[in-house]
Amino acid sequence: MSEVLPRSYAAPEPRRRARDVFRTYLALTKPRVIELLLITTVPAMILAQQGMPSIGLILAVLVGGSFAAGGANTINCWIERDRDQVMRRTQNRPLVTGAVEPAAALIFGIVLNLLAFAVLWSAANLLSACLALAATLFYVFVYTIWLKPRTDQNIVIGGAAGAVPALIGWAAVTGSLAAPAWVMFALVFVWTPPHFWALAVRYRDDYAAAGIPMLPVARGIEAATKQIFAYSWVVVAVSFTLGLTTTVGPLYLVVAAVLGVMFIGGAWQLLRNPDPTRAIRFFGFSNIYLAALFVTIAVDTLIRNR
Asked: Tell me: the pLDDT tens digits for 196-210?
């Protein structure tokens, strides 16, 4: 008589394996980075529309943007798998642990970018699709391969790739680019160095071990925190230039002022006491700052056009 296994032992292994594979490949795309990129896309769409775009267009741009960012991040992991191996922060990435073969990861990253181009072109327009592809090419070839291992100003220039989603959102709605879109691009562009340098202060030893000349490694923590503080003023100044290119309401101005004071204050505290704990705290708040500011752009626009 055949033995009947208890119900708890009869879970379908193929389904479990498929779930594990999905999670592994999802980890390659760096989903937390994607979330922050997408939160700059939808407010740009709302500001361009001066109201709420169609849900179908928003969903298509979010899917296409996710594919583009995920593909770029996957290719980044493929390029940096040897560096990731010597950094404690990245030692659990799938290409380091061997959970994914390098060739499979590269193909996955390329396919995601092809899907992104197709989705954005078919659901929005060619300009938004080309912007997404350009961001990936810039991130991979200009930042990851050329700038990152060669100069302590890598993130200053390379940060342009992460600022493109604001342009994509605007272009998806209007089919063109205008001054407000470039201000939002500039805001993310100047926000990226202090945001990333704070992370580099926290993980300075990791970057040094990998031979990556991030600013805290190449010039020291004191120089890095001075730059973070200087850039914090630039970020806040740029946030107020949005009102010079389009109409903004009092809600945006008040929130930008409050968040700006907090952002500069956090940078000042880090300058006075540049320990790793304070650095990662400022890094975390910088995420909140950017997300809150862009959400406010969307809410302010919807309130003014209701």
From this structure: 999 999 999 999 999
pLDDT of residue 33: 84
Residues 6+ apart with CB under 8 A from 12: none
Question: What is the CB neighbour count within 10 angstroms for residue 187?
Answer: 25
Which residues lie closer than 8 Å to 185 by C-beta, 6 or more apart?
A: 163, 164, 166, 167
State CA 62 to chain mean position distance.
13
- Asked whether the beta carbons of 270 and 278 are under 8 A apart, the reply is yes
pLDDT of residue 9: 45
pTM, whole model, 2 decimals?
A: 0.92
Give the pLDDT confidence score for residue 16 in this predicted structure: 62
Radius of gyration of the chain (CA): 21
| Total residues belonging to the chain | 306
Give me the residue spans of the domains in the chain: 13-304
Closest CA to 78 of 98, 91, 66, 95: 95
Task: At 99, give phi and psi (nearest 5°).
Answer: -70, -25
Nearest CA among 80, 285, 94 for reference residue 199:
285
Please name the residue ranges forming H helices in the chain: 13-28, 31-38, 41-49, 55-79, 81-85, 94-97, 102-123, 126-137, 154-158, 160-174, 179-202, 204-210, 215-218, 221-245, 250-272, 276-304
Task: Report the candidate in 303, 220, 224, 235 with the shortest Cα–Cα distance to residue 270.
Answer: 224
Domain 13-304 in this protein, CATH class: mainly alpha
